[in-house]
Design goal:
There is one protein chain. With 169 residues, the chain is α+β, with helices and mostly antiparallel strands. The chain is built from seven helices and six strands; from the N terminus they run αααβββαββαααβ. It has helices at 8-28, 32-35, 39-42, 83-90, 116-126, 129-133, 143-149, and strands spanning 45-51, 58-68, 71-76, 93-98, 101-109, 154-163. It has a six-stranded antiparallel β-barrel. A hairpin with a 2-residue loop joins strand 2 (58-68) and strand 3.
Length: 169
């Protein structure tokens, strides 16, 4: 049976997975602040620690984020099929690695809340070039166009449950 052709989304997923390995290495080496040094270009990047829904193993995924008040927001740009997103649904207890330290939190999908679109826009603005790769200029796109372009995106809110001592990254 012939192998199906890859879609553009599949191609981007593979590229991001390769890039994610580099980002995790940078964070583990203590360069989390450096990774976030130029957010207008590289975006604001955090590492999200979560438990694999099938394996039960600890996983880490770098994602773009924005902070609104005490909450952190990120988005599953590849939609509800993203492994890390499905892991959060199965076990919402997460570890958040930000440039100024790590802490534990609880993640929830807020894609249907009344502030969904403005918060999603803030995450996309904070993503630097990543939104532009998806063909979205989050600063100029209308709300209607944004809603259509991001209909598959999932917005995640993470609320702090406890602080941990700051570690490298």
């Amino acid at each position: 049976m012939p192998r199906p052709l890859l879609t553009a989304s599949d191609s981007w997923r593979r590229r991001f997975k390769r890039f994610n390995h580099f980002m995790l290495l940078m964070w583990r080496l203590g360069f989390g602040r450096w990774v976030n040094a130029w957010p207008a270009v590289g975006g604001r990047i955090m590492v999200l620690g979560h438990i694999g829904r099938k394996s039960g193993q600890q996983r880490q995924t770098p994602v773009n984020y924005t902070q609104i008040n005490a909450d952190v927001y990120c988005t599953a740009g590849f939609g509800p099929g993203s492994d890390w997103y499905r892991n959060l649904l199965a076990n919402p207890e997460v570890e958040v690695w930000l440039p100024d330290g790590r802490w534990k939190g609880r993640a929830e999908d807020v894609s249907n809340c009344d502030q969904h679109l403005p918060r999603l826009r803030q995450v996309l603005i904070a993503s630097g070039f990543a939104a532009y790769l998806a063909g979205i200029n989050p600063r100029t796109i209308s709300d209607e166009q944004l809603a259509a372009a991001c209909s598959d995106y999932r917005l995640i809110r993470i609320r702090r449950t406890e602080a941990e001592p700051a570690r490298p990254g």
